[in-house]
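step=encode ok
step=design start
structure_in=
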């Protein structure tokens, strides 16, 4: 009973944080609510006995990705009014996606309470990290490798799209430095000494 109460409490906080991510007027506040949503999702995964996924969510997303998002949002000068212009245009699609997600959540909760059977407790000494690694690297090894290649291509594409040649930046050409001769670089000038 206590576990169900804590689960519904964390779920309510997660839904509130997710709603505030998309409704916050300040982008920094939206990022901070997203951090709250990730922490709450990690707590729910701990309740579901998925400790490895919970720690990975905190370390990877909260510790790295969200800090990067926060710095990018704070450093960019985002025009909030221009971003809000497309809100009403995208609202119908957003409502359809939201209704589908709510239906999926209701279906999962309904199956848990009115479905057949109850979930079995794991045996003593069971490690979900070991089970996750075994399944990931045996049954889904090719899918895991393909996902890694897709992420690598996405990183290279993001770098290529954002790389801009600046005319005012200075760079060195090593081939010109190697071809340089002393006579071209240094000029000795003989000057007479000054007399008082």
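sequence_out=
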């Amino acid at each position: 009973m206590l576990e169900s109460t804590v689960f519904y409490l964390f779920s309510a906080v997660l839904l509130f944080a997710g709603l505030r991510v998309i409704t916050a007027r300040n982008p920094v506040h939206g990022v901070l609510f997203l951090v709250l949503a990730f922490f709450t999702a990690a707590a729910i995964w701990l309740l579901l006995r998925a400790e490895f996924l919970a720690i990975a969510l905190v370390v990877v997303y909260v510790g790295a990705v969200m800090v990067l998002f926060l710095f990018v949002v704070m450093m960019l000068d985002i025009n909030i009014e221009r971003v809000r212009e497309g809100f009403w245009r995208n609202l119908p699609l957003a409502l359809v996606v939201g209704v589908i997600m709510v239906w999926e959540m209701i279906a999962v909760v309904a199956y848990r309470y009115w479905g057949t059977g109850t979930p079995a407790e794991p045996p003593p000494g069971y490690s979900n990290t070991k089970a996750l690694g075994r399944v990931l690297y045996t049954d889904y090894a090719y899918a895991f490798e393909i996902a890694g290649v897709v992420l690598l291509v996405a990183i290279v594409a993001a770098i290529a799209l954002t790389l801009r040649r600046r005319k005012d930046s200075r760079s060195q050409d090593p081939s010109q430095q190697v071809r340089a001769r002393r006579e071209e670089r240094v000029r000795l000038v003989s000057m007479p000494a000054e007399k008082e």
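step=design ok
step=annotate ok -> Residues 86-116 form one domain.
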